[in-house]
Amino acid sequence: MDHTTLVQLGWAVVIVALGGIVGIGLVLLAATHLPRLIDRLTPNLDEGKEIARGNMAVAQYFGLIVAGSIVGLSIVIAAAVLGGIVAVLH
């Protein structure tokens, strides 16, 4: 292998590691802040109280919205990390 190839592969590994760490941090941050954001967007509905009363529709809606947002953020982070890898390898 050529020296420049090894350097490029090394940078690609560094970008993947840093992107993974930043991505995990952003997903954890989103997982903690998204439920509070949904609570603020629906001021007339107390999701916690409705879920405690057994209202499965609210529980499923709340869960799907939070889960969908986290999956969407994960896709964006994965695309950013992949873009960084492609930029380094070219």
Task: Give the number of domains.
Answer: 1
Q: How large a portion of the residues is in β-strands, by DSSP E?
A: under 5%
The SSE order reads: HHH
**Helix/strand structural class:** mainly alpha
Unreliably modeled segments: none
Shape assignment: rod-shaped
Kindly state the number of beta strands.
0
N/C terminus separation: 16 Å
Mean pLDDT: 85
User: Describe the biggest sheet?
Assistant: none
Give a structural overview.
This protein is an all-alpha fold and 90 residues long. It has one domain (24-89). The chain is built from 3 helices and no strands. The protein has helices at residues 3-41, 47-52, 56-89. Helix 1 (3-41) runs antiparallel to helix 3 (56-89). The relative contact order is 0.15.
What can be said about this structure in brief?
By secondary structure, the protein is mainly α.
Characteristics:
88% helix, rod-shaped, single chain
Please describe the topology of this protein.
Layout: H1 3-41, H2 47-52, H3 56-89
